[in-house]
Amino acid sequence: MRYFSVFFFFFLFFSSCDKYEPYCPEEDTTCEENQPTIFNLSFPSNFPTPNIPSFNPLTEEGVNLGRHLFYDPILSSDNTVSCASCHKQEYAFSDNKEFSFGVNEAIGDRHAPTIINSIFSTDFDWDGKSSSLEDQAFRPILNEVELHNNNWSEVINRLQMSEIYPDLFCNAFGTDDIDSLHVVMAIAQFERSIVSYNSRFDKWLNGEIMFTEEEIDGFNIYATERGDCFHCHPIGLFTDNIFHNNGLDTEFEDLGRYNVTGNPLDQGLFKSPTLRNIEFSAPYMHDGRFATLEEVIDHYNFGGHPSPTVDPLMKYVGVGLLLSNEEKANLKAFLLTLSDEEFINNSNFSNPFN
Ligand code: HEC
Ligand code: HEC
Question: How far apart are CA 261 and CA 142, in angstroms?
């Protein structure tokens, strides 16, 4: 009897080893018993309800795995580029280049957007072609100007053979049989943990600090008909997460939202970006056309270019806001109060391999 059970044990052991060749986990059988810890996400009460799909709850272990994947060039075909190559924490998870380099220095045609408070959004990419962060994360892994893999099986093989990932997947999802869905689920969990709400503006709102006179004037321009920014970039998230044409062009090189819907009324519409941490995420707009906030403010002050789809909320097309130099400077001073130093330096969001 004793001999029989030893024999049986070995049989099991070798058959599971075969499956995971060449990586052979020693404690494979305990994996399914793992219970990940619920991740506690805090955010202010004036923020909307977060969007967390029921099949992918936030857990400590899932966020940790996602953070590793986000920073690991193992996801790119030649091990040179990671998500963080284009979405850098110091630039509010955007890039300081107009267009970022992918594998083989391939270059795209849109500026890398920030990743901030994405848990409150339902549409992703400038044109909203992705409707969840899980959907979105699938895209760069195979995209030829981003991580440039030919197929998922290469990526999965690399992860399965690595020294760390089978354990990290086991802790997060109770499986070390890695697949593409769990890869994007983990990345989405990490992205959902990237929240920012500790700017000077938030502290002012909570009565913890005072604004300068310039900042107060800038806030009044922003939040009233005078500058009229608040409709598309409302107080709170500082984005309405809706698509608008803010008058950048009369003719469109990039048709934006139209590429997704095919509706002519969507030509030249792009998702309003959040203005939180705007100080860090230059250059600006979907094509990075403006290098500075002064240029952005000059665009709105000029009023924007007319076109059939220009947003009715761009009320000053052809007229201009007619802000004085002082008012423009004050509007900028207000925008700078949206910088969240704690967010930019938060070690929970930084490279776990450093
Ligand atoms: C080569 C640069 C590059 C790499 C690498 C890259 N991205 Fe992006 N990312 C972009 C660009 C450019 C866009 C805008 C795409 C569009 O609008 O069509 C984008 C869009 C996004 C968005 C949408 C943000 C929003 O609010 O709309 C998310 C989230 C994102 N990327 C996450 C990732 C993840 C996760 C990875 C790694 C798996 C990754 N990116 C790799 C450049 C890059
Ligand atoms: C009609 C809606 C609308 C109004 C009004 C509006 N914006 Fe925007 N804003 C947008 C959209 C849409 C974009 C992105 C456009 C693109 O990239 O094609 C944008 C982009 C920006 C950006 C660049 C963000 C980035 O990450 O690249 C800044 C800064 C900005 N707006 C500030 C302002 C200020 C300041 C005002 C008021 C003077 C204002 N906006 C009024 C819709 C609007």
Answer: 23
Could you tell me which residues come within 8 angstroms of residue 20 by beta carbon, excluding any fewer than 6 positions away?
28, 160, 166, 176
User: Does ligand 1 have an atom closer than 6 angstroms to the CB of 218?
Assistant: no
Distance from the alpha carbon of residue 204 to the mean position of ligand 2, in angstroms: 23
Residues sharing a CB contact under 8 Å with residue 318, sequence separation 6 or more, in sequence order: 303, 306
Ligand 2 atom closest to the Cα of residue 301 is 38
**Protein residue whose Cα sits closest to atom 21 of ligand 1:** 125
Number of residues in the chain: 354
How far is residue 141's CA from residue 186's CA, in Å, rounded to a whole number? 14
Q: Can you tell me the distance from the alpha carbon of 98 to that of 111, in angstroms, rounded to the nearest whole number?
A: 5
Nearest residue to 270 via CA among 302, 236, 233, 295? 233
189, pLDDT greater than 70? yes
pLDDT in tens, 229-269: 999 999 999 999 999 999 999 999 999 999 999 999 999 99
Residue 94, exposed/middle/buried by CB under 10 A (0-12, 13-18, 19+)? buried
CA–CA separation, 226 vs 84, rounded Å? 38
Answer for the pair 113, 126: CB distance below 8 angstroms, yes or no. yes
